[in-house]
Amino acid sequence: MMVMNFFYKWITILLLWNNSHAFQSPAPFLHRGRFAALRLDMSSSPSTVRVNEEVESTPQLLASIWNMINVAIHDLDRNEQLSTIYPKLDLKKPGYLNCIVNHLNACKDVCYNFGINCAVVPYLMDDHGNEVDSTRENLSTCVVAGFTVKSYAGLYADGGADSADSAGSYEFGYDPMWAEDEDEWELDPALLEGDDDDDAYFEHHVPDGDDEIYDVTKTWVSKMMSDMGVCPFTNGAEMAGLPMGKVFYEVERTNLVETLYEKYWNEVVRVEDNNERDLSTTLLICPNYAIQNVEMFENFSNTLTQPLEPLKVEDLLQLVFFHPAWTFRDGSERAGPMAAANYARRSPWPMINILRTKQVRTAQKGIPTGLVYQQNEKTLDKVGSEELEGMLRNRDWSKLENFTVNRKDYEALRVAQDLQAGNSSDNNLAFDPISAGK
User: Fold this and answer.
1) What is the C-alpha separation between 374 and 435, in angstroms, rounded?
2) 20 to 30 Å CA-CA from 308: which of 189, 250, 269, 391?
3) Vertex 158, ends 152 and 159: CA angle to 5°?
C-alpha cells in the first residue's frame, strides 16, 4: 500500500511538471523491475552538489552523467547522492530532456548496475537558485538545472525474501520450482564432448598489454581496410578521411558497460574538440567487452545510434561497429555468417568507429550507393572466408600481400583517391558507409 501511495505521488508530481510553463518535463529515471513503482525520495539522503561550467554540448553532458553514474556505482554508499548543475547548458529546450531520458532508459536494458543499484533524476531549482524538493506540491515555477544520481547499493542487505550479504552474494527465498538437490543440476560431461572441427567455438584471447592490442589493430587496419581497399578513404593505419587526417586509437579495457558509455562519450567530446586534420576518425577498441557475444555488442551498439538523430548528434558524427563475429543482415543472398563480405566488419576485437558526418557527406558526392560493398564482396571472395577466418583467429594478415588491390582498377577506390588528392567530382551520387562495409 505504501509503495502504491509513492507511485500515485509521483504521478501527481509528473502531472504538475508537465502542466508547467517553465519547461517540458521528462518522465523520471526509475529503477527497473521490482523497483519500477518506487518514488526516489532524495530529501533525507547525504548529498553532494557540484557545478560544472565546462559542459556546453550534448556529448559533454552525457559524458558527465555517465561519470556520475560510475561514481555512484563505485564510490557512493547506499542512499548517498551526487548532483551536478550545468549553468551553461539550456536544459529547457522543448523535448530535449525527454530525449536524454529516452537514451538513458534504453541504456538500462544493457547495463549491469544502472537502473538497479543507482538511479538518476532531474535536479530542480526555483527562481532564486535554491534546490527544490521534488515531492512538494507546486512545481510550476521550478526549472531543471542538472541531474542527481542516487546509490541503492545493497538495497536488500537488510533482509527480505531475497537478501544479499555484505559481499554482495544473494540468498534467495524458497522457490518450489527450484530443485533442492544440487546433484540434479550437475552437467553431464558427455554433453560437452564434440569434434574439433572448424565450426567449434573459438575463444578470442585478449593480450595483457595494450601495446599488442594497438599493434594488431593497426596491422588489421593497414592490411584489410587500406591495402585491400575495404575502406576507400583509409590510407595506411595512421591516416584516413576526406580531407585526410589522423586516425586516433584508444583502448578501453573495461567489461562494465557503464564505464564503456562514459568512455565512448568522452571520445565523442574529443572528436568535437579537435579539427579534422588532427583527428579525422576514432577507433575505440573494447577488447574485454562482449568479445564472445556479438548479440550483446549489437544491443549495446543500438543504444549509441538511437540518440544520434533526436539529440542532433548526427550532425557531428556517424558510427560504424566492428566485432569478430559480425554478420551483415541486409536480406540478400550474400548475407549469412559464412559470407566473405562479412570480414569487412570482422575485427580482432569489438570496436566503435566514430566518423565525422561532414566527411561522410562529402564522400556521398562521389561514390555510388553499394558500389564499395560490391567491390569488397568481389575482393574478399577472392581470398575466401576460410582464409580470412584463419587470419582473424591468428591475427596474422601477412598472406594478404598477394591480394593487395590496385586502387586504379576499382572505381570506388579510384574516385576516393581523386577526392583525397583534391580532384573533386561533379557527381552527386550517394555513398552508404554501412553498405560500404567501412
Assistant:
1) 9
2) 250
3) 115
Is the CB of residue 289 less than 8 Å from the CB of residue 263?
no
pLDDT digits (tens, 9 = 90+) for 341-361: 999 999 999 999 999 999 888
Q: Are residues 241 and 384 in the same domain?
A: yes
Q: Could you read off the pLDDT of 219-242 as tens digits, one per residue?
A: 999 999 998 888 888 889 999 988
Closest of 121, 147, 109, 148 to residue 261, by C-alpha:
109
Report the domain count for the chain: 2
For 156-314, where are the alpha helices, taking DSSP H only?
210-220, 257-273, 294-305
Largest Cα separation within the chain, whole Å, is 74
Q: Is the pTM of this model over 0.70?
A: yes
Range(s) of the domain holding residue 119: 2-151
144 beta partners: 124
Q: Cα angle vertex 427, ends 421, 431, to 5°?
A: 80
Pair (28, 112) in one structural domain: yes
Query: 10 with 39: CB under 8 angstroms?
Result: yes
Sign of CA dihedral 99, 306, 120, 163: positive
Q: Give the mean pLDDT of 249-255.
A: 97
Tell whether 289 and 403 lie within a shared domain.
yes
Query: Exposed, middle or buried by CB within 10 Å (0-12, 13-18, 19+), for 167?
Result: exposed
* 141 shares a domain with 64: yes
CA distance 296 to 286: 13
Q: What is the CA radius of gyration of the chain?
A: 25
Question: For residue 333, which phi and psi values (nearest 5 degrees)?
Answer: -65, -25
Q: Which three cell numbers stand for residue 55?
A: 559542459
Distance linking the first and last C-alpha atoms of the chain? 55
Nearest to 109 by CA among 368, 301, 363, 389: 301
Q: Are 147 and 231 members of one domain? A: no
Burial class (CB in 10 A: 0-12, 13-18, 19+), 119: buried
Q: Tell me the sheet residues that pair with 356.
A: 317
Separation CA 9–CA 198 (nearest Å): 59
* 188 found inside a domain: no
Q: Are residues 282 and 361 in the same domain?
A: yes
Continuous H helices in 257-384: 257-273, 294-305, 357-363, 371-383
Give yes or no: residues 141 and 278 share one domain. Answer: no
Domain finish residue from 151, 185, 200? 151
Q: Are residues 143 and 226 in the same domain?
A: no
**Where does a domain end: 114, 129, 151?**
151
Residue 22 lies in a domain: yes
